[in-house]
Design a protein that fits this description.
This protein has about 450 residues and is of the alpha/beta class. It has helices at about 15-20, 30-45, 45-55, 65-75, 80-95, 140-150, 170-180, 190-195, 215-225, 250-260, 275-290, 295-300, 315-325, 335-340, 355-360, 400-415, 420-425, and strands at about 5, 105, 115-125, 125-130, 155-160, 180-185, 205-210, 230, 235-240, 265-270, 305-310, 325-330, 345-350, 390-395. The strands form 3 sheets. Strands 1-11-10-9-12-13 form a 6-stranded parallel sheet, sandwiched between helices. Strands 6-5-4-7-8 form a 5-stranded parallel sheet, sandwiched between helices. Helix 6 (about 140-150) links the parallel strand 4 (about 125-130) and strand 5. The N and C termini lie far apart (about 95 Å).
């Protein structure tokens, strides 16, 4: 058996750490990645092409393959083209609901005068999206990165995806549908370096987003500060919360589906029903050999961060899920809404037996670029907000400033910043704040 049922209460400190202290393996490759990024920064296309030969075994001609995308769109199977269009439309519709509106409002209550404050939102000008390649092609990641950026209003969205003797036409078609402005045939750490700093062929960007292996993640860590990034993501994760009403075959299907991403994937089911736990183990075992990526799946299910766990109650199961903070959280239980109300830490939640994680991976419309390794305790997944900057705006009239003057000057002087206080007093004719009126001091009294 690749899985065995363990009791949550019996897990040793080391076993709990394997579940809760997941990482992306960045430290293993950090020094090598920093060298790659530095060479791309200083040598440009020459270094990029050298690394494509070394790591991908591909002699890259033109790094810019934008013109190939429309041709790929026209040439792919009509059914695949329709699936891309449908998925893109759903992703676009969901993210359009996220676009914030500029606003201004009056503040200050009964203090008098005008104190008008607001916030406005503007997109970044240039963004780079990374879409993985390697052992599988991910046109879905193209949609998840490019579409929200275009919805946000980003003017220049560049896509980087690993080179190949023949680039995956479905990935290129997805880039065309999503609206990528430039497409580059470069992957790995060298792609992140090229997007961050620019080369002769690659336009530098302000922010780099998208999932990737540990080399990509380490490169995003290396360039962070010079450009912005979304977050550092590790191997894929799923946690299924299930009670006695769950179908073990469906629970196992979600575990196996996520396991086929990566041998280092973390796939976990937690239930308060011991019989269900045993049935899930058996169902997963039956399914593995039917899958093309059986070897990858088996490795993922056998790693220390995967397992089927029996909890003494659903409350204990929820506590485990909160500490785990899953990238994908599936709740397959009779009262899934009640359990959802108790969940704070999750990247994306899938409710009910007919909501497989694959729905969010591809076509429901939510974004599948999500925090891993417990990141859901601190931030959310990719969204329109990722590509926006906010600016606050304020306008005060004389009475509005007068109402705040004593507060401002008192705090400024308490901090020893006399000029700050004087910048307020200078706006009053008599040099003193607190007059409470815009009236002319020489005017005749009524």
């Amino acid at each position: 058996m690749v899985l065995e049922v363990r009791a949550v209460s019996d897990l040793s400190p080391d076993e709990r750490a394997a579940f809760f202290d997941r990482d992306a393996g960045v430290s293993d490759v950090r020094s090598d990645v920093e060298e790659i990024v530095d060479r791309v920064r200083t040598e440009g296309d020459v270094a990029v092409r050298e690394f494509c030969r070394e790591f991908d075994g591909v002699e890259v001609g033109n790094l810019d393959v934008t013109d190939d995308a429309e041709r790929a769109y026209d040439e792919i199977d009509a059914e695949v083209r329709e699936a891309i269009e449908t998925a893109a439309a759903n992703v676009r519709a969901f993210h359009e609901r996220q676009v914030p509106e500029d606003w201004r409002d009056s503040f200050g209550g009964d203090s008098g005068g005008v104190q008008e404050l607001g916030r406005r939102f503007r997109p970044l000008e240039r963004v780079g999206v990374y879409a993985p390649g390697g052992t599988a092609a991910y046109p879905s990641s193209v949609l998840m990165g490019v579409v929200p950026a275009k919805v946000a209003g980003v003017d220049h969205v560049a896509l980087a995806t690993p080179p190949a003797e023949e680039l995956n036409p479905v990935t290129l078609a997805a880039a065309h549908v999503a609206g990528a402005d430039r497409i580059y045939s470069v992957g790995g750490a060298q792609a992140i370096g090229a997007l961050a700093y620019g080369t002769e062929s690659v336009t530098g960007v302000q922010k780099v987003v998208g999932p990737g292996n540990k080399w990509v993640t380490a490169a995003k860590a290396a360039v962070r500060g010079d450009v912005d990034i979304d977050f550092l993501a590790g191997p894929s994760e799923v946690l299924v919360l299930a009670d006695e009403t769950a179908d073990p075959d469906l629970v196992a299907a979600d575990l196996v589906a996520q396991a086929e991403h990566d041998p280092a994937a973390s796939v976990v089911a937690v239930t308060d029903d011991e019989a269900l736990a045993a049935d899930v183990v058996e169902a997963a075992e039956r399914e593995i050999d039917d899958r093309e990526r059986a070897g990858v799946i088996r490795e993922a299910l056998e790693n220390d961060a995967s397992g089927v766990l029996h909890a003494r109650s659903m409350s204990e199961a929820v506590l485990f899920a909160e500490e785990y903070a899953a990238e994908h959280l599936s709740i397959q239980a009779d009262d899934d809404e009640a359990l959802l109300d108790r969940i704070t830490n999750a990247g994306s939640v899938f409710l009910g037996p007919h909501t497989p994680v694959a729905a969010g991976d591809y076509a429901s419309g939510t974004n599948h670029v999500l925090p891993t390794s417990g990141g859901a305790k601190r931030y959310g997944g990719l969204s329109v907000d990722t590509f926006l900057r906010s600016t606050t705006v304020q306008r005060l009239d004389r009475d509005g400033l007068d109402a705040l003057a004593d507060t401002i000057t008192t705090l400024a002087e308490a901090e020893g910043l006399e000029a700050h206080a004087e910048s307020v007093r200078a706006r009053f004719d008599d040099g003193e704040a607190g007059a409470g009126s815009d009236s002319d001091p020489e005017a005749e009294p009524e």
